[in-house]
C-alpha cells in the first residue's frame, strides 16, 4: 500500500512538503501541519502530516513527522460550514423578504391613510357644503374599508405562516353557501353592471363537511378580483362540477371562476400567488388591492390538500380552477322552521327603548357605540371595565337591562371573567344576553366568547347593520 496524493493536490502538496519549506515553518512555530487528500481504491479521504523539531535549537535540522486520518473531522467541519452558509442564506432571504414586506406595507397602508387624513381635512373646511361633505365622507369610508381589508389580509397571512390558522370542518349545504356568496357580492356586481352566472354541473352531493368560512374566503377572493378587474357591463361566472374520481365517502369538486376582465400576462401568472404580487396593468389602472388575497387563497387551498390553477390572456379575461375534495355529510340537515316574516321597520320598532349596558374601556370607542345605539333608539348605560359591569348588574333590578355589549380586553377585569361572574349571579340578570363587541376577531376568539357564556360575537370596527342584526337576534 503506498501513499497516493489526490492529483488535484499534487502541486500544493509538493510545494508545502519541500525540505526547505518544512524546515523554515517548524523554526517559526512548534508544529507545522499540511492537510491533503489521499486517493486509495477509488476513495478520497483527508489526511494530515505534522512536522516538529526534535530539539529547540535554531540551528537544528532534525525533525519528526507523523500522519493522521482526519477525514471525519474535515467532513464534520464541511457540514458545519454548509449549515452555517445555509443559515446565512436563509437569514439574508428572510431579511430581504422582511424589507420587501415593510416596503409594500408602508406603501399600501399609507395610500388609504393619506386619503382618510386628506379628505378628513377637506371635510372640516367644507362643513357648510353638504353635498361636498357627503362626497368626502363617502371617500373616507371607502378608504377605511380598504385599510381594514389590508389589516385583515396581513393578519390572515401571519396566522397561516405561523401555523395558527385552523380548518374547522362542519356540515354545510353547497346551495346555501352559494346563496350566501351571491348575497355578499351582489352589491359590487350591481355597481359595476356585471352579469353574474352561477351554474352547477352534475352535482350529486350537496351536503358536505367543510370549513364554511375558508371556502367562502377562497371563492370571494377570486370572485372579488373578477369584479374588481372586470369591465363595466362584463361577465363573471362561477361553475361547480362534481368529478367522478373521488375517494370513498368523499366528493370532489372543481370550482371554475371566469371573468371578462383585463386579464394578465403569462409572466405575471407565474407570480400571482406570491405575497404582494400585483400586475402592472392593475397598478397602472389605479385599482386598489392588498396584493395578499391570492397568496392567502393559495395557502388555504394547500391547507385542505386542494389545487388552484390560473389561465388568462391580457384583454380577454381570466379563469381560475380550484379543485377540492370534501367528506360527504350523513344527510340533509333538518330545515329550520320558518320564522314569522318581519320587516326591517317592524324589527326597529320592536327594539326601540331597549336598555343596553355598554362595557367599553376606550373612551372614543365608547362614544362611537353610544352615539350609534342612541340614534337607533336604544337607552344606553356605560361601564368602563368588567368590574364596573359586574357591580352594576349585581345591583340591577330584574328587567333593568335587556342586553350587554361586552368588550374583551379591559385593564382590571376582561370580558371573559366579567361574563363568568355575571352568569354566576343568583338573580334573573344572570341569563341576560351578552354580545362580545371586540377587536379580538379570530375564529378561536369567537369560540372562546361563546364557550364563556356569551350569546354572540361582533368584531370591531363596528358595522352598524351587523350590530343591529346581532341585537335583534338576541332580543327578538
Helix/strand layout:
Layout: H1 10-16, H2 19-26, E1 32-40, E2 43-53, E3 63-69, H3 71-124, H4 130-161, E4 170-173, H5 174-191, E5 195-201, E6 207-210, H6 212-228, E7 235-242, E8 250-259, H7 266-269, H8 280-285, H9 293-303, E9 307-313, E10 317-328, H10 344-351, E11 355-359, H11 363-375, E12 379-383, H12 386-395, E13 403-406, H13 415-423, E14 434-438, H14 443-452, E15 456-459, H15 464-475
Parallel strand pairs: 5-7, 11-12, 11-13, 13-14, 14-15
Antiparallel strand pairs: 1-2, 2-3, 4-6, 6-10, 7-8, 8-10, 9-10
Can you give a write-up of this model?
The chain has 476 residues and is of the alpha/beta class. The chain contains 15 helices and 15 strands. Strands 4, 5, 6, 7, 8, 9 and 10 form a seven-stranded mixed sheet that branches. α5 runs parallel beside α6 and α12 packs parallel to α13. The protein is elongated and about 110 Å long.
**Number of beta strands:** 15
Major β-sheet profile? 7 strands, mixed
Low-confidence stretches: 281-285, 332-339
Order of helices and strands: HHEEEHHEHEEHEEHHHEEHEHEHEHEHEH
The first-to-last residue Cα distance is: 97 Å
Count of alpha and pi helical runs: 15
Amino acid at each position: 500500500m503506498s501513499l497516493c496524493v489526490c492529483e488535484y493536490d499534487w502541486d500544493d502538496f509538493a510545494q508545502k512538503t519541500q525540505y526547505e519549506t518544512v524546515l523554515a515553518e517548524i523554526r517559526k512555530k512548534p508544529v507545522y501541519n499540511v492537510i491533503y487528500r489521499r486517493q486509495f481504491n477509488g476513495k478520497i479521504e483527508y489526511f494530515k502530516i505534522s512536522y516538529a523539531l526534535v530539539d529547540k535549537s535554531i540551528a537544528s535540522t532534525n525533525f519528526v513527522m507523523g500522519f493522521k486520518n482526519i477525514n471525519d473531522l474535515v467532513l464534520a467541519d464541511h457540514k458545519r460550514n454548509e449549515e452555517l452558509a445555509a443559515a446565512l442564506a436563509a437569514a439574508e432571504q428572510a431579511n430581504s423578504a422582511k424589507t420587501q414586506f415593510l416596503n409594500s406595507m408602508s406603501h399600501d397602508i399609507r395610500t388609504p391613510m393619506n386619503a382618510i387624513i386628506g379628505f378628513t381635512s377637506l371635510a372640516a373646511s367644507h362643513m357648510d357644503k353638504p353635498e361636498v361633505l357627503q362626497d368626502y365622507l363617502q371617500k373616507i369610508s371607502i378608504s377605511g374599508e380598504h385599510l381594514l381589508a389590508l389589516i385583515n389580509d396581513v393578519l390572515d397571512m401571519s396566522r397561516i405562516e405561523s401555523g395558527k390558522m385552523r380548518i374547522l370542518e362542519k356540515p354545510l349545504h353547497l346551495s346555501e353557501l352559494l346563496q350566501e356568496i351571491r348575497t355578499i357580492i351582489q352589491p359590487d356586481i350591481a355597481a359595476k353592471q356585471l352579469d353574474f352566472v352561477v351554474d352547477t354541473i352534475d352535482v350529486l352531493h350537496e351536503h358536505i363537511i367543510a370549513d364554511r368560512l375558508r371556502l367562502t374566503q377562497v371563492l370571494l377572493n377570486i370572485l372579488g378580483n373578477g369584479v374588481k378587474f372586470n369591465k363595466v357591463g362584463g361577465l363573471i361566472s362561477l361553475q361547480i362540477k362534481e368529478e367522478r374520481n373521488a375517494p370513498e365517502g368523499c366528493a370532489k369538486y372543481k370550482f371554475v371562476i371566469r371573468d371578462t376582465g383585463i386579464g394578465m400576462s403569462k409572466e405575471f401568472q407565474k407570480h400571482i400567488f406570491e405575497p404582494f404580487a400585483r400586475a402592472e396593468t392593475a397598478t397602472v389602472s389605479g385599482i386598489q388591492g392588498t396584493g395578499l388575497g391570492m397568496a392567502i387563497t393559495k395557502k388555504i387551498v394547500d391547507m385542505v390538500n386542494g389545487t388552484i390553477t390560473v389561465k388568462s390572456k391580457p384583454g380577454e379575461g381570466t379563469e381560475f380552477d380550484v379543485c377540492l375534495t370534501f367528506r360527504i355529510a350523513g344527510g340533509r340537515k333538518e330545515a329550520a322552521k320558518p320564522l314569522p316574516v318581519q320587516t326591517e321597520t317592524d324589527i326597529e320598532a320592536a327594539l326601540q327603548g331597549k336598555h343596553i349596558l355598554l362595557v367599553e374601556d376606550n373612551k372614543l370607542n365608547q362614544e362611537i357605540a353610544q352615539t350609534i345605539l342612541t340614534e337607533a333608539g336604544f337607552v344606553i348605560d356605560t361601564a368602563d371595565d368588567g368590574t364596573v359591569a359586574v357591580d352594576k348588574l349585581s345591583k340591577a333590578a330584574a328587567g333593568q337591562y335587556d342586553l350587554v355589549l361586552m368588550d374583551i380586553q379591559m385593564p382590571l377585569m376582561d370580558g371573559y371573567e366579567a361574563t363568568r361572574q355575571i352568569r354566576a349571579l343568583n338573580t334573573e340578570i344572570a341569563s341576560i344576553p351578552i354580545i362580545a363587541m371586540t377587536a379580538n376577531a379570530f375564529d378561536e376568539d369567537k369560540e372562546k366568547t361563546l364557550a364563556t357564556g356569551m350569546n354572540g360575537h361582533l368584531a370591531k370596527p363596528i358595522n352598524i347593520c351587523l350590530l343591529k342584526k346581532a341585537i335583534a337576534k338576541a332580543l327578538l
